Structure formats: structure tokens, C-alpha cells
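Let's practice the habit of predicting before peeking. Look at the sequence and jot down your guess about where helices and strands might fall. Then scroll down.
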Amino acid sequence: MSELALGVARNQGSRNFSDSSANTGGSNSSDDDIVSELTPLVGDSSELAQERRPFLTRNSSDNSLHTVVPLAGMLIRSHVISASIDNRYGGQVCNIRPSSTKAALRAAQQERRGLIRKMNEEPKEEPSVNASANVERESYWISIETPPRPTDEMFSFLRQLRMPSFFTSRLSEPNCWATEVIALKFVSLAIFQVIPLDPNSDEVHFVALLGMPMLLVTFSPLASSDLEQGQGFHNLTMQYMKKRERVHEPSNSGLTLAWLQFHVRRTARALKELSLASSRLDHELDSNVLSFNFQSLVDTKNCLLKIRSIAHEQFETIEALALAEKSTMGLDFSNCQGALSMLRANAASNDRISGRIDKHLNEIRERVMSHREDTLNQRMSLLTILSAVFMPLTLLTGIWGMNFEEMPELGMPGAYQKSLGGMLVLAISMVLCFYRSGWAR
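Done guessing? Here is the structure:
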């Protein structure tokens, strides 16, 4: 797929923007190692000689942090990951160090060219798995965090990366993102739903991962206030990745798995808090059902619905990535199957746990509603008893209230007192009868 070539612009007959100090191999670097400010992430090198934007004519030294010009308020950070031997505990350890975007792009381009050369050469005897696994290599990670921007402005920025047009169009509208995985021959794109920086926020937050051989690019839209205060996913992810054995392999695939594992663990922590909250609600309901706060149950349920949706989307995206690895060179989980299996197991566990918490909250809600129905039934039973007690009394008052000329009871001595006494005895008798039959208990 030549339109996806990770090539470098060869400025034939024009100004050369390369910097000789950028070549890690010293003065013996070839033209293939030249990196200019027109370096793309994904694109066709033949297009670069035809288009030179004014804002891309910056000095491209190794000390330059960005070769892709960021927009105002946008943060672009580059890191290199390599393997080393742990002298204290033994074994291989992955180290993450600051780097430059230019170094990351150059490494990705050289890797891309090597893959193309191998594909064009005649088939040769394939190296053994152990031989390929022992080759020490470095990989790079470019993190892009940006506040909300107009679609046209974001589209113009993403054109610097020389991605396929539908990638550029898709990424330029973060408000329309949805979880999906797209795998091309040398590039893979995954849009992943994550918990927002503020867990109490009602917004739906997505991040994008662009995977290529030796390079991972993460794209995170964040609020301007979070970026100004230095609160972004990049800092949190770096704290996680720098711990021992967080990154299982110094490759873009190892970085991808570690990055996904970080967000899956955030989801697991949120589910753990919800599980504890549901247990507290259950205890409160058992302790004193009359003082139970039903609004707390409603708030916990609403929070669970958001987290459960995220857990399910994460599980589906990770499963899709595991399948997409077979059809793209942008992902290679062959040397980190253990980390992939752990990630898939954790995502599946989050999906199951969210379902169990949902079931538990539904049971608590049913118990609360059942208690309310019991209370209502008791009140209706009391009203029924009172109605039954006063029905014969109402009948007697209705009879004695008739305006007939001859009513012997009216002329009886002490008729009023006797009628009241009879009504009282009748009412007490009915109450005792209901009590003995269990109606008034």
C-alpha cells in the first residue's frame, strides 16, 4: 500500500532540510536516514516534495522537541522505550526515556523501509523465533493531548501526519468518535473509550491509538483547564509504565498493551469502589430499612451504568485488537502473549463484575420496593379494618336517622345511652375478632 509509505521526502533539486547531527549512526548515514521538517507519520514521500507549508520550515535538530508543529494549547511528548538488564533482580527491564518526535519518525520510517525491502526481495529461509526474539530494538511513543478545536483546524493539523484521508477525517472530529478498530497493512487505528479524568463527569471520553512498526501514537482530547493544570492521561500513564514490569516488551505492541492495561485497571478500580458502595447500601438496608436513603441507590446505579458501558466497550475493543493483529504489521503480539492474555482476562473480568454489581443493585432496589409495598399493604390493611369496624355503626346510625313517625326505640328510656353502649361493644368485638384472626398484627 504505497499510499501508506512511511517514507522521507527526498528534496531533489531543492533545499535540504536535514540535520546531519540527527543521524544516530554518525557521518556514515545514508540518504534513507535523512529526516526533514516535512517528515510524515504515514504518507507517500513523493507528495512531500510538492508541498512545503510555511509553518514547517523550523530547525530540525535532535534537541527540537517537535517535528510536527503543535497547535496552540496542544501538548506533544515523545519517548523512546528500550530493554536493559536488571542487575538487582535479573531479567529484562523496559526503560522509558524522553526523546524527540524526529527520532521517533526516523525510526518508524527506517523500519517501514526494511519491511518493504523484505517483502520485495526473493523469499529466503526464515530466521528462527529465538533469533528474532533476541534482537534488541527500540520503539517510540508520541503522546498528543489537545483541547477541543474546530474540525477544520484539527483536520489541517492532522494533514501534517500524512495519514490516509479517512483516518484524518475520522480523527478530526473527536465529538463523533465511537469505539472501533481499523487495521490496514502497516497501520492500525483503535478508538478506545476510557473513564474521564473526573470520574464524576457525565461526558463520554475516547482516546485514539495509532499503531505502526516501532511507533505508537496516542491522541487524547482533553479540556483546556486539565491541560493548563498539567492533569492529563499522559502523566498518569507514565507513572504507571515506569513501574517494574508494566511494559512487557520494548515495542509499539508492548506499549499498546501497557497503555490499555492502565485504563482497564482504572475501570477495575472504579468497579471496586462501586462494589464497596453496593455492599454499604446492602448493610444500611439490613440495619434500618426505614432510614434507608433511596437517592444513594439511584446515584450508585447511574454511576454503574456509565462504568459498565465503558467496561463493555473496552472488552469489545481489546478483543477486536487481538483479532486485528493477524491482518496488520502495525501490531505484533507474538512476543507478549502473556500480557495480551492478562489484558483480555482483566477486561473480561471488568465486564463480568459490572454485571454482578448491576444484579446486586437491582436486588437491593427490589428489596426496597418490596418493603415499600409491604408498608403500603399494612396501611391498606389498617384502613380496611377501620372500614369494617365502622360499617355496622354506619348502618345503625342510618336506620335511626330515618324520619318515620313511629319508631319505638326513640321512646325507650335510656335509648341514647344504650345505643352508644351497643355500638362500642360491637366495635370492640370486631377489633378483637380481627386481632385473633391475624389481620391487625
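How did you do? The chain has a mean pLDDT of 75.
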